């Protein structure tokens, strides 16, 4: 009997250990199940919150796009009316001409901001789709310089530009126009009264170079590092109370990258700023 007892003792101990292990495993399994249920609950809550945030964000985007698009029409009409009134300004007093100039500047400023917001939304929604059609870049640039001369004159700023002979390229005329418009607008916007803006368009052996140089306050090295980022407000401020959304140069960089070009900035504090756009040879017609 004693021998049987000694033989059965290890088995009993083993059984006890096994039962204890099973009980412990069962407790751990139950704990893991509870933790898993808690995690799934949190995941579901996060998914629901994320869905609500996405819905709110989409509504915000739609509202911004709708408002921006609707604002474009009134600004266009104001711009057209001020141009019409400028053509018959000989019947206006000097004070009336001054106010008309300010209205014209506000219309140009507002149109630029609306276009940049709409372009920014296009980048977010589906990116920029470019069309390639031949057009004369020199003629297009001459047209924009002529349009912006009226804006520049209100700040007593001279735009120095000598048109080139015909320079035909294959590119998206609308988006190239947006680049020209933003660079010219910024140069005038950040230039003090009585200064000059220099515009050049020259053919190179490997493409085309378009540059806009101003005599404004310049851009610090720190600001140059974030120059082409979205919604960046730089240290330098517009000199005539104009608005700045921080989107213009972001749009420029996005378009230039898309067409395979290069946009550079050369600037020193107190010595003005020069933006250089280089278009690749493949765009030449």
Structure description:
Helix 1 packs antiparallel against helix 2 (94-125) and helix 3 (137-154) packs parallel to helix 4 (173-189). The mean pLDDT is 80. The strands form 2 sheets. A 5-stranded mixed sheet has the order 2-4-5-7-6, covered by helices on one side. Strands 1-3 form a two-stranded antiparallel ribbon. With 285 residues, the chain is α+β, with helices and mostly antiparallel strands. The N and C termini lie far apart (109 Å). Strand 6 and strand 7 form a beta hairpin. It is built from 6 helices and 7 strands. It has 2 domains: 1-127; 131-283, Histidine kinase-like ATPase, C-terminal domain (Heat Shock Protein 90, 2-Layer Sandwich), CATH 3.30.565.
């Amino acid at each position: 009997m004693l021998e049987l007892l000694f033989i059965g003792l290890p088995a009993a101990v083993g059984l006890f250990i096994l039962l204890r292990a099973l009980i412990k495993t069962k407790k751990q399994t139950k704990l893991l199940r509870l933790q898993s249920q808690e995690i799934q609950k949190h995941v579901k809550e996060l998914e629901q919150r994320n869905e609500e945030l996405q819905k709110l964000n989409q509504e915000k985007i739609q509202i911004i796009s709708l408002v921006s698009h609707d604002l474009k029409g009134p600004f266009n009409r104001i711009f057209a009316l001020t141009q019409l009134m400028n053509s018959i300004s000989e019947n206006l007093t000097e004070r009336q001409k001054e106010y008309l100039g300010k209205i014209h500047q506000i219309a140009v400023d507002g149109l630029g901001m609306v276009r940049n917001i709409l372009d920014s939304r296009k980048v977010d929604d589906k990116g920029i789709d470019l069309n390639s059609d031949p057009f004369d870049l020199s003629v297009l640039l001459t047209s924009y310089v002529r349009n912006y001369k009226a804006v520049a004159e209100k700040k007593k700023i001279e735009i120095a530009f000598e048109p080139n002979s015909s320079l035909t390229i294959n590119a998206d005329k609308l988006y190239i126009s947006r680049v020209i418009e933003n660079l010219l607008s910024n140069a005038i916007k950040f230039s003090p009264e009585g200064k000059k803006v220099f515009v050049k368009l020259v053919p190179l052996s490997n493409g085309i170079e378009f540059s806009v140089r101003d005599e404004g306050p310049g851009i610090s090295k720190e600001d140059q590092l974030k120059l082409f980022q979205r919604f960046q407000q730089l240290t330098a401020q517009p000199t005539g109370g104009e608005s700045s959304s921080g989107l213009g140069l972001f749009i420029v960089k996005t378009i230039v990258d898309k067409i395979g070009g290069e946009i550079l900035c050369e600037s020193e504090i107190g010595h003005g700023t020069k933006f250089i756009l280089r278009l690749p040879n493949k765009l030449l017609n």
